[in-house]
Amino acid sequence: MSHTPSRADFDQYMVPNYAPQKVIPVRGEGSRLWDQEGREYIDFAGGIAVNSLGHCHPVLVEALKAQADKLWHLSNVYTNEPALELARELTERTFADKVYLCSSGGEANEAALKLARRWAHDKHGAHKDKIISFRQSFHGRTLFTVSVGGQPKYSQGFGPVPGGVLHAEFNNLDSVRELVGDDTCAIMIEPMQGEGGIVPATPEFLQGLRDLCDEHDALLVFDEVQTGVGRSGSLYAYMDYGITPDILTSAKSLGGGFPVGAMLTTDRVAPVLVLGTHGSTYGGNALASAVALAAIRHIDTPEVLGGVAKRHDLFREHLEAINRKHGVFKEIRGMGLLIGAEMAPEYEGRAKDILPLAIEEGLMALIAGPNVLRMAPSLVIPEADIVEGLERLERAIARMVSAS
């Protein structure tokens, strides 16, 4: 007997660490989705900044289908052509000399942190082990990455957590100076905090971190899992700032929906990851690498990257118009197509209330904490879909306001 999965099946069969919306999408094309009942939605969520080219983009579908008929997985006992091509493209398009491939952003950040510790240990000794991160940061869900992330709620109940991690205040260089020293091995930062509320770093702050790392012979690590691969309007956000890290992590948009991650670094740092020091069973598998290769080649073009800035302006224009009418936002901020709208004081903590109303109006959106509405749509979302999606958002907001 056939069975059509329902939302109730989630509660029955899945562990309760998520609380998905009631609708179940079954088909996607571009920036539109359809659920089991055939209802259509405009997608401003983008799989949390993952679906960089929307749903079922023909370039990615073609790459996946072509590779599926050739080779899927070998393990790291061997290498494969798509992985080597992806690594070459990443180094040629960025500051990096070497690439480590894995399956997710959390894995990429875990690798970056281990690399930083190993580099400091081998170059300076075991005493140089301190990692400075920032309050409200987010770097993944492994025990190491949640410890480095600056949101204690994600590590509560999982202790004891790894030590040697210090947290400073984002965009406050003095708070970093109070913590940095000769025992600092790395400073890890998101160029724009994602889960922490879509807060861009100031150029002066990032330059100050670069200077402090140089002064103390520490490594500057940029977590670009959410800001990377076109999301900011450049291939990576460090390019917008003109400040080069020693290590960079990438995932989400890199695969356009296929699970893949990467850690990028330099010839100065990479050699300490000698044979056997780290690994990933699925990292660099041929399917993921082929899709990521197609994604990065398509995204890193003037047409796509230039269109991100244009779409950002369109979002901002319409969000500001919504706010003039309803007064629900305190600030609209972000870079490229990672946009946050912080709620006004009278609607404090109510960003989450917009999501189910938006679903009812045919729009999928996100939050970044309880107080920031977040949008991370496809980098090539049609402008007509932006306008229509924001009309649907306005209807959802109007309903929230009228019920207040």
UniProtKB/TrEMBL annotation:
GO molecular function terms noted in the UniProt entry: transaminase activity
Compartments where located: Cytoplasm
Catalysed reactions, as listed in the record: N(2)-acetyl-L-ornithine + 2-oxoglutarate = N-acetyl-L-glutamate 5-semialdehyde + L-glutamate
Subunit record text: Homodimer.
Cofactor: pyridoxal 5'-phosphate
Family according to the record: Belongs to the class-III pyridoxal-phosphate-dependent aminotransferase family. ArgD subfamily.
Name this polypeptide is given: Acetylornithine aminotransferase
Note, other: May also have succinyldiaminopimelate aminotransferase activity, thus carrying out the corresponding step in lysine biosynthesis.
Keywords: Amino-acid biosynthesis, Aminotransferase, Arginine biosynthesis, Cytoplasm, Pyridoxal phosphate, Transferase
EC id: 2.6.1.11
Organism per entry: Halomonas litopenaei
Involved pathway(s): Amino-acid biosynthesis; L-arginine biosynthesis; N(2)-acetyl-L-ornithine from L-glutamate: step 4/4
CDD domains in alphabetical order: OAT_like
Positions bound to pyridoxal 5'-phosphate: 138, 223-226, 281
PROSITE patterns: AA_TRANSFER_CLASS_3 (PS00600)
Residues reported to bind N(2)-acetyl-L-ornithine: 141, 280
Record carries keyword Glycoprotein: no
Primary location group: cytoplasm
N6-(pyridoxal phosphate)lysine carried by residues: 252
Source taxonomy: Bacteria, Pseudomonadati, Pseudomonadota, Gammaproteobacteria, Oceanospirillales
Co-factor: note: Binds 1 pyridoxal phosphate per subunit.
